[in-house]
């Protein structure tokens, strides 16, 4: 999981996953390797309707230094529904198959199950646009072309703000040509994606 190094360095927080096996593995790993950590591991399916209660349980309104969202489906709609004012940095996994110049997301579907067919999540430009509306700027994209990092504009003056089109990275290089063709065909023919 993408926050292990933070936990190793004594950060506290909450990990949420809907997969029972993943939750058991997380609890086992954290309990074994980092028994003193202050990590709450919760089994729940994240939706736009429950995200606030999951992130701020019991109506706590504490500041969050780092918020990572990687649910492979309704990420855009979850972020859109949230009050992000108490969050400093957001990491979200974008769908590189949707390209650098398209602002696309999948239609909201709380029952969606991920399949590696190119139809999931949202494009980097869609995330950049919705987070700009909420006071965040794009400051980094990992070299694998998977995750984008956004900073609360209160802190943006300390970073170089990136253009999503110029800094876009794709992980397509990890797929063979037949798989790429199949994925692009799926995207082109899909009625599950919408422009935002």
Detailed description of the structure:
By secondary structure, the chain is α/β, with parallel strands linked by helices. It has seven helices and eight strands. It has helices at 4-8, 20-33, 51-55, 75-81, 124-133, 164-167, 177-189; strands at residues 13-17, 39-43, 64-69, 87-93, 104-106, 136-141, 147-152, 193-195. The strands form three sheets. The protein has a four-stranded mixed β-sheet with strand order 3-4-7-6, covered by helices on one side. The chain has a two-stranded parallel ribbon with strand order 1-2. Strands 5-8 form a two-stranded antiparallel sheet. Strand 6 and strand 7 form a beta hairpin.
The N- to C-terminal Cα distance equals 29 Å
Assign a percent range to the helix content.
25-40%
Name the average pLDDT.
Answer: 92
The global form is globular
What order do the helices and strands follow?
Answer: HEHEHEHEEHEEHHE
Overall strand count: 8
Number of helices: 7
Low-confidence stretches: none
* Rg from Cα: 17 Å
Derived from helix and strand composition plus strand pairing, the structural class reads alpha/beta
List the helices and strands and how they pair.
Blueprint: H1 4-8, E1 13-17, H2 20-33, E2 39-43, H3 51-55, E3 64-69, H4 75-81, E4 87-93, E5 104-106, H5 124-133, E6 136-141, E7 147-152, H6 164-167, H7 177-189, E8 193-195
Parallel strand pairs: 1-2, 3-4
Antiparallel strand pairs: 4-7, 5-8, 6-7
